[in-house]
Amino acid sequence: MKKNIITGHTLLLLSCLLITSVGWCQPPMCGCTDTSATNFDSKANLNDGSCKYAHTTLKAEVLGTLDSLVEGSSSLFYWRNGFWTYNDHVNNCIYLIDSTNASITDALCIKRIKNQDTEEIAQDSLYLYFGDFGNNRGNRKNLRILRVSKESLENKVFQIDTIRFSYEDQTDFTAHLQATDFDCEAFIVLDDSIYLFTKQWVSAQTTVYSLPKTPGAYMAHRRDTYNTKGLITGATYIPEYQHIVLCGYDYDRKNLFSALHPFLILLYDYKDDHFFSGNKRRLDFPSGTKAQIEAIATSNGLDFYLTSEHFHTTRMGLTFDFPAQLWRVDLRKYLMPYMKSKSKND
Predict the structure, then answer these.
(1) Residue span of the structural domain in which 20 resides
(2) pLDDT (0 to 100) of residue 323
(3) What's the whole-model pTM score?
């Protein structure tokens, strides 16, 4: 896995944080360097992760309703100049989605894959990684990520390897439906590692775990936890600018009127692979918006596409029905200042 190399910049940050803890840090060093934050410090030149933001409401453009073949859409990724999705169960085909109207334009069915509960697909230059680790009862002992060679997909010979893992701190495997902190629906691949972002039904937080991206059996190493105040269901990583966007929704199974409110969380200007050490900004959709948002992807780091899974239930005589859809959101306003500053500094 990626080694924790202490760079000069990281050492400076650690020193500043230590000094800050005892009250000795003076400007212009540590502080919030994001101009869009409410506590932006113009004298600070080293981001200490303390930025705070005003509540922000984000509008989405609904591009269309997904075909019934992909109403279980739980992953979305950009590959071969298009956006592809995959159901969390049912079949083993990835489907190319028209990014203007949500229609299916192509399909690629992968032989020799058993899809128990695949909740996310991530990628690097050589492979697609199928995250078959959905675990909303908390009792799975066969968590795995299937690594599929992109070249083999092109040639339709399907070269597939398996990465198996367990959470290093999970000791109780008693089944508790939607009452576990060891569910997962989001991950990214970075350098030589996989980073899982858990979906924590109990604490409404997310914890990052890391493991190697090569075939084998591993203990996923617990890294950092962040209070997302909701369930994380998808992640996308933009390597050019080293920022991450998470998607998710609030959930209260006792009160569905206040549940399924989607949100995004932006992670940027962090240090190395400590994703919560930098800016952490939550963007909410309007309060009346309801959707089981499951996946997010982008081709340019500015325009982001999301898919929602079909949600249907009846509680106390009331029926809740939210369709599977494709959305688009424009995050230029929020990410462009950082991207410009990073390009300038690089």
Answers:
(1) 1-53
(2) 95
(3) 0.91
Q: Are 33 and 173 part of one and the same domain? A: no
Amino acid at 121: I
Count of domains forming the chain:
2
List, for residues 168-224, the tens digit of each pLDDT value.
999 999 999 999 999 999 999 999 999 999 999 999 999 999 999 999 999 999 999
Strand partners, 334: none
60 falls in which pLDDT band (50, 70, 90)? Answer: very high
Q: Domain of 80: which CATH number?
A: 2.115.10
CA distances from 216 to 72, 157, 194, 219, 326 (A): 29, 22, 13, 10, 35
Same domain, 115 and 188: yes
